[in-house]
Structure formats: structure tokens, C-alpha cells
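Exercise 7.
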Amino acid sequence: MDENIYKVSKSICTFCQTPIKNEMETFFCPSCTSPYHKDCWLENKGCAVYGCGEKVVGDDEFSSIREAIINIEYLINRNQFSEAIYESKQLLKIDRRNAELKNLYNKAVALINNKINLMTSGDEAFGKKDYKAAEVYYKNVLKYTDDIETNFVATRLEIAKEKIPEQNRRRIYQNILIIIIIIAIISAIGYLGYYTFVLKEDRDYTELVRSDNASDMGTMEKMISKYENFLRSYPAGKNKDRAINRINQYSYQISSIYYKDDWKLALKYYNKIYNSIDTQDAKTLFNNIYNRAFNDYKENLAKAKKLNSMSKYSEALNELNNCRLIISTFPKTDLSKETNILESNIYLLNKKISSIMKFNDLEREIREQDKELNNISPAGSGNVYMISARINKFIEPNIYLGKETGTDKIVAIKSENNYKAGQQVNLECIAKGKISVTDDENQQSLTQLYIPVSEAEGQTDASLTSSEKDAIYERLKNLRIQKGKIDSLLKINLL
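Solution. The predicted structure, written as C-alpha cells, is:
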């Protein structure tokens, strides 16, 4: 019995719901195997089953797909992988069996993954202060970045290049110092013996104290370096505590003097204060440095918000990246609580930047489609508008209120057609003044009244067939929906 039911169901055309008389007329959907008359399959341009999506690609669509494929290749060559992935996904909904589209999509995904992996590795190395490795990763990631991302990576490269020589010099100085100390120790052991070696620490410290007359920033930095060298020479010496105390004093002085003008410099010397020092003054100093950094963070964030409101998204992103660097400097403070909000803002700006080109393309195509409609409208009809709206309600004989698709603007349409609430209409109309309408809150306002060109007195339109106009209307509707989504995105304020 089940087999008989299956045979009967298979003999009914899914599109026209009439029996398929013989096997020669039968065509099965390649995706869901639903049966069709061959003519019905072609007439519907694909499968009529909801959710199947199998379509027949026509010559015009094939040409459009070829153009889109060229555009996707262009986006990939410009390292705009996210846009390429998006375009590929949209085209695959139309022609999901297109092998070239699938290859381009897979290529874009692979390239963006390479970029993300290299960028992540570079950021990790940078965070660990392994600037040499970070430089290698950032140089490689430049192969996959677009113009905006290149600027950020270039900034990181400049920082890394500045740090590498500094680290190399410090390493050389340390090695030289160690060699000198070793030579000095060996010489002391060889010439003076154990007793002389024991006294060497006192002589060195006495000499260090004799030269300790720092009065400005430069001399204080030199004295800190000398005391640090002394501690490296005598890490467990009897003068250790006194040397540490002098380092703490000088570091505290430098930090206290310069934190208002350069909190980064102040923090550098604050970090030289040994953990064993836990005074209230040291805590107060750190709070002062932290507050200056936090003020810089707030200023950068405020600039980013202002630039975002001015549609200067790249400049705003640079300010947020500065904020990110400040947060990374104070990982275990209240600033770290701002990380999630900051990263959300950075993600939003990156999304806005990637949407600008798409937004401009949509605006241009909408203007072109509107111009085409106006050019083909009948002579003497005045300004002709394409109205795409969803009917809300009937207000008086032959007058309907609707909400425009994409803009949500309320319009009035005068027509003899019997429209129903919720019905979507796409009409070529002539503006006929304004009428007063009352909303749900009993508030009155003036709304533009439109009359379909086909119903206007003395107007005929033979320039386009109904199907051609419907196609333009549908395209304009979709374009305005897409533009509306991007416009809503661009209007979002930073957190």
C-alpha cells in the first residue's frame, strides 16, 4: 500500500499538481527528486518545493554570475576576503552547483584563515615582547591585508623594529658586563686572593656612593643603571638592601616628576621599584600613573566616538587601537573590564569599513534603476515614482495606507484595486498632492498621495511589459532593503 501511494505521489507534477501522463514528460529535481512535467520545470525555472533551492540558470543570470565571479576574483586579489566570501555565498544560493564559485569561496576562506593565523601569532609574539618573531609574522601577514589592515600592521612593525635594536643592545651590554665582571672576579682571585675578593664589594659600593650626586633626569637614570649593575655583580651581597633602596628612591623620583607629562616613562621607572617596597607612597604613585593612562584612554575613546559620528571610521579605529594598547599595559586593573566593550567597538568599526563600498554600490545601482524607470515612463506623465510598500489598512474609498519597504515611510495609494492588509505592492505612480491621515494614536499628519500610472487619466504605458516592470520593482525593493540594513549599521553609535 505504501508503494502504491509513493507511485501516485510521484505521478503528480509538483508545480501544476496535475498527473504526469508518461515517462517521457517526467523530470525529477536533482536535489529533492520531486517530479515535474519538463515544461513545468522550465516554466518555474527550477524546483517549487519550499527550501529546496534548485534553480535553472538562464542566459542572463549566467552572464551576471560570470560578471560576479570576475568581481569576486578582483576582491580576492585586493585581499578583501570577507567581501569575496559574502558575494560567493550569495551567488551559490542562485547557482550552488557552480564549481568555479565553490573554488573561489574556498580560496577566500583559506586566505582569510591564513591572515587570521598570522595576525594571531604576530600579536601573541608582540604581547610576549618577542619582537623579532612578531616582525616575521607581521611581514608575512602583509601579503593578505587590505589597505586599512596594512596601516595597523605597519604600525606594529614600526614598534617591533624600534624594540629589536634596543633589546639587542641591552643583551650586548649585559653580555659585556658579565664578561667584565667575570674577568674582574678572576683577576681578583688571581692577584688579591680570597681576602681581597671579600673586600671588593665594599670598595665598589663605596665608589658608587662617592659618585652618587644625581640632580636631573639624565644623571638619575645613570645612577639607577649603576646600582642595577652593582646588584648583578653582588646579588646576595651585604650592600644589597642599600642598593635596592637607592634604586627605589631614584625610580620613585623620576616617576613622580614625569607621570603628568609622560605616564609611559613614569610606569617604566615605577616598575623598577622592587616588590619588597610596599609603601603608601608607592601605591599612590601607581594610582597617579594609572589615572593619567585612564584619562588618555577616555580621551581616545571620546575621539573615536566623535570620529564615528562624523563617519570617519578608519580614524576612529586608530583611536580604539590606541585604547587597546593602554588596556594591555594594565592587564590586572579596572581598565581590563573595558576589554569586551572595546573589542565590540573595534569589531563594529571594522564591519562599517567593510560595508562602505557595498553601500556606495547599492546607492549607485538604485539611482540607475530609478533613472531607467523614469526614462521609460510615458510622456506627459510628470514625475513618476516607483513605490514598493506593504499595505497597512484601508482609510476611505479607494485609498490605502502602506509602509515603504526599506525606509518605513508611510504613503497613501489611491487605486481601484482591492488591496488587503499585509499585501506587498510594487507600483509605478504619479504624485498627486498630500492628504491628511490619522494614526493609531489619533495624531493627524500630511502624507503624500500616489496614483498608479496605469490608473491615471489619459495615461498608457506600453514601454515595458508587466513582467519587466515587476523585475525592476523587485530589484529596487531588494536593493533598498540591503541599503537600509547597511545604513542602520552605519548609524550605530559606539558603546
